[in-house]
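Budget justification aside, the reviewers requested a transparent look at the raw inputs and outputs of the sequence design task funded under Objective 1. We therefore reproduce one unedited record. The lines immediately below are the structure tokens for a 228-residue chain.
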């Protein structure tokens, strides 16, 4: 039996400065519904549930917050990709969007994000903790509406910190485990990798809230919710 096609609902305005992805998504094998506003999207979703909503807020000249809130209230498990333009006020960013893309971007980038979301929904190895989602196999972390591909060592650091979340992990233990060495005389490279990890998961890397430095001891990862 052939696999059921994944359904995407594309929410965009009638007039947009950016090319519609409707036909491109159809050509990739997805069933695509087109909605012109949030009310229309909810109505279409009620009749034909979708796996992913792609909301082009830039074409609607809106932040997309109200539309996302309406969709999530009605369909709490719906995955949402929010599209904004460069003038978008990031302080108004909806935390309910899975991924945020900023124009201009390529179809390839959009397809990559869609494929990651669909892969995540079919896997049970995903760490899901509020604003933080981590796929240790694909080495991708989602935080505050953005996705980041991690290097193998940054990914290993995050995985070790998650395994010990809430507890202080000594610097020496992190270095020995991730770098596979007992030589801990010079761990400056650990500082660099911790900085890269914070840039991926923190809303404000210069004022970290999730990954805390415990002076003289090590690091502690505090997640907003329990790791599933």
């Amino acid at each position: 039996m052939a696999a059921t096609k994944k359904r995407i609902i594309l929410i965009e305005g009638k007039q947009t400065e950016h090319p519609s992805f409707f036909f491109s998504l159809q050509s990739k094998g997805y069933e695509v519904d087109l909605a012109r506003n949030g009310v229309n999207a909810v109505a279409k979703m009620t009749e034909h549930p979708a796996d992913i909503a792609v909301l082009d807020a830039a074409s609607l000249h809106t932040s997309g917050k109200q539309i996302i809130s309406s969709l999530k209230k009605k369909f709490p498990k719906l995955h949402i990709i929010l599209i904004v333009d460069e003038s978008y006020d990031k302080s108004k960013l909806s935390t309910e969007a899975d991924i945020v893309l900023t124009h201009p971007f390529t179809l390839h980038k959009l397809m990559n994000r869609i494929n990651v979301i669909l892969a995540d929904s079919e896997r049970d190895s995903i760490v899901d903790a509020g604003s933080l989602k981590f796929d240790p196999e694909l080495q991708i972390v989602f935080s505050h509406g953005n996705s980041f591909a991690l290097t193998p060592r940054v990914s290993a650091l995050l995985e070790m910190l998650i395994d010990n979340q809430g507890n202080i992990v000594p610097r020496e233990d992190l270095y020995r485990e991730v770098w596979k060495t007992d030589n801990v005389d010079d761990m400056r490279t650990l500082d660099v990798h911790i900085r890269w990890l914070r840039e991926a998961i923190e809303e404000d890397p210069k004022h970290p809230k999730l990954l805390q430095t415990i002076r003289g001891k090590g690091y502690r990862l505090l997640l907003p919710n329990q790791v599933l």
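Helices lie at 22-27, 38-47, 57-60, 65-74, 107-121, 152-163, 171-179, 188-201. The two ends are 33 Å apart (CA to CA). Computational costs for records of this kind are itemized in the attached budget.
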